[in-house]
Amino acid sequence: MSHLDPVVTGDTGLDVEAIRAQFPILHQEINGKPLVYLDNGATAQKPAVVIDAVSHCYRSYYANIHRGVHDLSQRSTTAFEGVRGTVQRFLNAPSQEEVIFTRGTTEGINLVANSFVRPNLSAGDEILVTGMEHHSNIVPWQLLCEATGAKLVVVPFSDAGEIDLGDVTARINARTKLVSVIHVSNALGTINPVAEIARLAHERDVPVLLDGAQSAPHMPVDVQSLGCDFYVFSGHKTYGPSGVGVLWGRYALLESMPPWHGGGDMIKTVSFEGTEFAEPPQRFEAGTPNIAGVIGLGVALDWLMGLGLDRIAAHEADLLAYAHEQVGAMDGVRIIGNARHKAGALSFVMNEAHPHDIGTILDNDGIAIRSGHHCAQPVMQRYGIPATARASFGVYNTRAEVDRLVASIDKVKRLFA
Fold it and tell me: Which of 150, 298, 349, 381 has the smallest CB count inside 10 Å?
């Protein structure tokens, strides 16, 4: 049975069939079966409006930004810079000047690590993370600790996949320089109590970074209510292009940070005697960016806000609870991660079959899931397993697709019995 909050049975206000019609890639067959795409935790598919926006940019007005007085450059610059305001609304950020465009969540975390944390980090200092982090919120801190003699401190989580706030409190001390926490676990689906974690950290004057890669597509995000100091997310998981993402940071912190990458477009003046750097956010955006990608990201975020993140969250909560009930009732199947508050992901293992075998058989039925460690090997080690099979949901998924998932898992059981 499901350990989740009760299934949402009411009308969420979304016309899912109309939404599905906007995604060209969904209307195909895989191995002779209609595609069921349940790998949204890895990347989401793109609605036509995003595809068209990127195409229109390249076909109609693409040019390099900030540097040209000609019409195409001016139009590209206006479209690109306008996305900062879109991100500001999406995150309820105080200012669009706090929005930095990156290549994705990973680069955003590395930017904070190298520009904000490293200049103030000494041997014996500590960076606090949880045991359920994605590799992108582990490896940058390990590299930083190896270079400086600092220490990575890990908050454990329970068998259900939940963080105890008492364990957080016990690990924050005078040497803690940053708390960096995943908002929603990509491997377990756990929604962490990040607002409470931020409050505990701020009581000790410790800044907080939130990895929002798995929360931004699935629920309303208000960085002011969450109380974080930095928030990062990726475009490709929010139904936008790949190779683009966002780092939001409090302006006072960004203003104090040196640049990480040097080059064009992040300067005021350059001479061989020295360089004066631009103010944030341009200070952190060296070189020609992914111009069309950023424009596509803005369209994707507008599209999400038009649907309503609260309605998306309700729809996906219904799907996830329904899937938990169906899969959890199957003999020989164990769900990994039974937190009371979850979003997006259902990870499981089977007695008879390795996750890679599960993924292959489901693919033969036209069902795309993820099999592996999900770039979260410490999570797998915590449960003593090499990998899981993970079905992760998006706004275009349906209960009928969950039924097909369950039927295909049953086929795996019969084949390996």
Answer: 381
